[in-house]
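Feature request, filed as a ticket because there's no other form

It would be nice if the structure record came with a short human-readable summary line next to the tokens. Right now we just get the raw output. Example of a typical job, pasted below so the devs can see what we mean:
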Amino acid sequence: MELDCTAVLADVWLMLDGECDEATRDRLRHHMDHCSPCIEAYGLEEKLKRLLHSKCGGDRAPEGLRERLTLEIRKSVTITETIETKEV
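Raw output as currently delivered:
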């Protein structure tokens, strides 16, 4: 199954947090192996995650907050991709 960049970037935090299953992780990695913009974005997200972990002591956000943030990130990525597609 071919993934588009929007789907990969929306799920990159799930992969970084170890919250996706092995099949999803394999699909994401396969896409990133062939897509330099996505692997670059993944690297930036990974650095941000490490920075947050070092500054916040690894505290885990409440589940409700995590769900709201995930939803907002997905909406933001979708809106950005839609706007970029319309401008092309």
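Something like this underneath would help us a lot:
The chain has four helices and no strands.
Helices lie at 5-16, 22-33, 36-56, 63-87.
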